[in-house]
Amino acid sequence: MKHILELCEKDKSIAEIYLHVQTNNEEGLAFYKKFGFDVIRKIENYYTDIEPPDCYLLVKVLSPLRPQNSSHKHIKDI
């Protein structure tokens, strides 16, 4: 993960990184939060072949100085 984030930091065209984590994947959620990802919303019925079907959408903002196209609010306390 650290290597991927370093590569993305070098590419000034990348302002944010998004990923999905299944809602019951507490270890995965903790892992990504450790690298600076924040939960911005819960998506219901995202997965079709696994239970639970819901996921969290996470984002890591690489630099506040880079242009951002999103105006999302972060979900706190998840």
How do you describe this structure in short?
The protein has 78 residues and is of the alpha+beta class. 23% of the residues lie in helices and 26% in strands. The two termini are 21 Å apart.
Structure description:
The protein is of the alpha+beta class. It contains 2 helices and 3 strands. It has helices spanning 2-10, 26-34, and strands at 16-22, 38-43, 55-61. It has a 3-stranded antiparallel sheet, covered by helices on one side. The model has no long low-confidence stretch (mean pLDDT 87).
Overall pLDDT confidence? 87
The largest β sheet comes out as:
3 strands, antiparallel
Q: What ranges have pLDDT less than 50 throughout 5 or more consecutive residues? A: none
Overall strand count: 3
Strand order within the widest sheet? 1-3-2
Instruction: Write the H/E string, N to C.
Output: HEHEE
What's the tally of helices?
A: 2
Structural class: alpha+beta
Multimer state: single chain
| Helix share bin | 10-25%
Strand content: 25-35%
Radius of gyration based on Cα positions: 13 Å
How widely separated are the two ends?
Answer: 21 Å
Shape: elongated
Summarize this structure as a short list of keywords or feature phrases.
single chain, 78 residues, alpha+beta, three-stranded antiparallel sheet, 26% strand, elongated
Question: How is this fold's topology laid out?
Answer:
Blueprint: H1 2-10, E1 16-22, H2 26-34, E2 38-43, E3 55-61
